[in-house]
Write a structure and sequence with these properties.
There is one protein chain. 38% of the residues lie in helices and 23% in strands. Helix 4 links the parallel strand 6 and strand 7. The longest helix has 21 residues. The chain starts with a strand and ends in a 7-residue tail after the last helix. The strands form 2 sheets. It has a 10-stranded mixed β-sheet with strand order 5-2-1-6-7-12-11-8-9-10, with helices on both faces. A two-stranded antiparallel ribbon has the order 3-4. The radius of gyration is 20 Å and the shape is elongated. The protein has 10 helices and 12 strands. The protein has 289 residues and is α/β, with parallel strands linked by helices. The chain folds into 2 domains: 135 residues, HUPs (Rossmann fold), CATH 3.40.50.620; 137 residues, Rossmann fold. 39% of the residues are buried.
């Protein structure tokens, strides 16, 4: 079953994510699932003192809000809601990864702080442990107006399965792709070789409407933000695999910094399982690699 998962804390930012996820689910016919993880404050779940009344009240309030979400998006064919409780990061991780989603859509507070996301300080870890692509939504976003994606591209740390996820993205959103390589100043390269490298992969995945830019910059995060602003990109896309190239900085401060300081949606492709093409699965496109 194709599944889009929305972690929610019922705030305005989470509502932006819910609305965007609903648009995607309607377009591709996916199941739309909402999950709320009750973060039990330290002490309420202490083995010597469990405040059942407080936990029950929190649970009832959350259940009511989840039912309201189901009613709001009742026009969709398949909606599921999940309620879990945990006082630990591992508990939150287990709750989310237990739902085999093809895409996670989550609200962020953009430039107001990565640590204010849907699960407080724990949410920054969702991008790290997710087994599928994750889109962060900092503002109200209309799918029909999301027309240009900026792809952070590194020819020295590239796996061909990235291109298949981008094929899925293009089919799902009907979006143009602008690849940008943030190159260290002074690094020598041959433009025609980079063009041919990218073209061969795009042709294999039948990707059209794309272009490539190379920007000299000493700071990757600043370079990507510059390119996104300059191109008026509607979406930023970051990808990683294994533990080389992009992944050295993506899993660390750069990805968090980009999401933290950007007021545009950001898609992170976690390609840990190279045999699974989550975004292609959402659009039901068959392919052979």
């Amino acid at each position: 079953m194709k599944t889009i998962l929305v972690p929610t804390d019922f705030t305005t930012c989470a509502e932006y994510a819910s609305d965007f996820a609903a648009q995607l689910a309607e377009r591709c016919g996916a199941e739309l699932s909402f999950i709320h993880v009750l973060e039990i404050p330290n002490g309420l779940d202490n083995e010597y003192y469990i405040n059942h009344a407080a936990i029950e009240q929190m649970s009832n309030e959350a259940e009511s809000k989840l039912k309201s979400l189901s009613k709001k998006y009742a026009s969709l064919k398949n909606i599921k809601t999940y309620l879990s409780a945990s006082s630990s990061t591992d508990g939150i991780k287990n709750s989310i990864t237990s739902i085999e989603a093809d895409l996670i859509v989550m609200g962020t507070h953009g430039a107001h702080g990565f640590k204010d996301l849907v699960f407080g300080s724990n949410t920054e870890k969702i991008v790290r442990f997710a087994q599928c692509p994750v889109i962060s939504i900092p503002i109200q976003t209309d799918l029909t107006l999301t027309k240009k994606a900026l792809i952070a591209f590194d020819p020295e740390a590239f796996h061909e399965n990235i291109i298949w996820e981008l094929r899925g993205l293009q089919l799902l959103m009907d979006i143009d792709l602008h690849f940008v390589w943030i190159k260290p100043p002074g690094k020598k390269y041959k433009k025609e070789e980079i063009d041919y490298f990218l073209e061969s992969h795009c042709q294999k995945a039948d990707i059209g409407n794309y272009k490539l830019s190379v920007i000299d910059h000493t700071n990757i995060e600043a370079g990507i933000n510059y390119a996104a602003d300059n191109e008026k990109a509607d979406l930023m896309v970051l990808s990683t695999h294994a533990r080389k190239g992009l992944s050295r900085w993506l899993i660390g401060s750069v990805a968090e910094g980009l999401i933290n300081n950007s007021n545009r949606p950001c898609l992170v492709l976690q390609l840990q399982d190279f045999q699974t093409h989550h975004l292609l699965n959402l659009v039901n496109e068959q392919n052979s690699i």
